[in-house]
Amino acid sequence: ELKVEQNPLFLSMQEGKNYTIYCNYSTTSDRLYWYRQDPGKSLESLFVLLSNGAVKQEGRLMASLDTKARLSTLHITAAVHDLSATYFCAVAPNTGNQFYFGTGTSLTVIP
Amino acid sequence: DSGVTQTPKHLITATGQRVTLRCSPRSGDLSVYWYQQSLDQGLQFLIQYYNGEERAKGNILERFSAQQFPDLHSELNLSSLELGDSALYFCASSPSRDPRTNEQFFGPGTRLTVL
B-chain residues within 8 Å CB-CB of A90? Predict the structure, then answer.
């Protein structure tokens, strides 16, 4: 079974600071997805990464994918309070379309 | 709003009972996925349907079953409920026109509490 590890599990950061969330996975895949979840809410799609070297940016968030290293990163630039949420990465195996999710990173941005 | 709807939002029931969760995918999406989110297991894939047929199975218990109807809505049936089945159940759908992209859009979820 495809394993997906995310770290850190918890992240408390000050406004204005930068940080990176890491997502490692265990088997060959070139499709990786990032989602955001607010407490008690559904999952909101942030990024879809479909090839080695893919990089996407939206506002203060930037995601990248290295399929050779089986690693994706979600970089946060100059954090603001509105970014406080739980972030999940999900991987789809090359043999199917179901998602395997990471453990999630609970981000709290402190003023 | 993703366009995926789920009913009910909340469900409280007793151990041993049976419940049905319902999902309507986005207009035009043929694929429906069910996921379970719990504190101890995280987000787990349960089952996928594509245009009425089962396409993939994950960590779905034998007490659970699902189906997708001709109008593409899907139902997840949970029976002989146990305390450990308490969780948030999500349905997601994805467009069929670009299966490789496979971006999945999640519904609001059904929160199941088993007492």
Answer: 43
